[in-house]
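re: that chain from earlier
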Amino acid sequence: MNQPLTDFLPDPRSNDPDALAHDIVERLVYRIGKDRKVAKPHDWLQATILVARDRAIERWMNTIRHTYETQAKRVYYLSLEFLIGRLMRDAVSNLGLLEPMQAALDELGVDFDAIAALEADAALGNGGLGRLAACFMESMATVGVPAYGYGIRYRHGLFRQRIKDGWQLEYPETWLEHGNPWEFDRRESAYEVGFGGYVDYQEANGEEEKYVWRPAERVIASAYDTPIVGWRGTNVNTLRLWNAEPIDPIRLDAFNAGDHIGSLKESNRADALTRVLYPADASPSGQELRLRQEYFFSSASLQDILRRHLQQYPSLDNLPEKVAVQLNDTHPAVCVAELMRLLMDVHGYEFTTAWDMTRRTIAYTNHTLLPEALESWPVPLFERLLPRQMQIIYEINARLLRSARAEHGFDDAAVRDISLVDETGERRVRMGNLAFVGAHSINGVSALHTELMKATVFRHLHEMYPDRINPKTNGITPRRWLMQCNPGLTSLLRETIGDAFLDDIEALRALEPFATDPGFQTAFAAVKRQNKERLARVVRDRLGMRLDPSALFDIQIKRIHEYKR
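^ sequence. v structure.
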């Protein structure tokens, strides 16, 4: 049979409100098993998400197919946080379905805003770092950059907040309690991730020696994919989150011997890896769990990246030309040592070649100028948990320090500053320095941040590698923070300057001549007044308090995480 594969793809689905209404009812009946007459709001939410997801899937497959056909370079964005929040309104808006979907639900007697508010908040981050990652994923899809995001599928994200008598109370965030209709279980994409154990040394017939890591413990990293829709829905990228599963879910011998709790020990250790976002690290066990989480998702992601590359190309020789691995802060910095391990121990490259490939593949985003805020791990913990990676870090460090003295004339103080191992007091592995030396590009998140980074936290590394640090200014996603959060203002802008800013935010400069226009000022003030009146109604309904919309509102919205107090 020689028919092209495209002949077997379904026809594009109609976005007409009547067709959408039909599809929503069809999903309600055949996917959720509910009759319209007894369907609850969360059933309508699930059915609506499935209809939007179906339309995203078509674009998703086209995006992936186009990337393969054009052999385009892919960006892999590794972040311990992805604060993606509620996806339905975002995806529906980006697909151009907001108005027809609202009309379809109106036809069915369902309020779009009411069911959208029921969607679970995927609070897989604390704030800025995670929201930056989410914005980048949406932005890369919008501008057509082929990208995968990699992170952890936390069962409990940022805590659920309640304020009682002026005090914050924290409860588990159970966003996966009823499943996640956006995600796809990719059970074929599963990888073993090891911890502990020892390293075997093997002679290799006169060639470079070979090291083999023998982990004492292994878990399975299993992938779950979520489509991330770009503006206008032209491109859809992938967010891949890892779940940890035990190799042996239960030790039946121990269970049958009466040790019912001990028989689940392996399951519980695996479960802990993806149970909680940022477990407290004040205790040694908490520190170990943090490092385990970081290595778990970094190793699984790199194994997946290399597997995908080898599916398309005959070898890894062209890895830096086709793969960009972006480290969002130091959490995935262990990637530097892990990529070296995979290239050398698994794929047979010698150290110098592997180091060149690693540095040309990896880039690093720095988020802090405080040396004490850059992650570091006790050397004994690192050696025990990741012995082969620690060997590689020692070798990288030895070559780095030799170069600093011989080629750059660094004195003892400068050498101590750039070392990957802090020898002052408790010996610790400096993850910021590791990320820097293992990357070809290091960016701050603003021009000022970048200049201060050169002068402070990475001063001596910048002297060694003066071309690596470069500025990248954080942007926002105007599709979410303007069009969705402030539809009244969006409508006023469209009436005033047209629709160009919807696709190019720089087009907002056309608004400057209207800043002194009395008519525009009046309309702008009216939008602000309407928003304040809406907030006043919410406060009245929930708290029984009456606010004067004419008053000045000074509002801060923040869950006060422990490390912020």
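The two ends are 66 Å apart (CA to CA).
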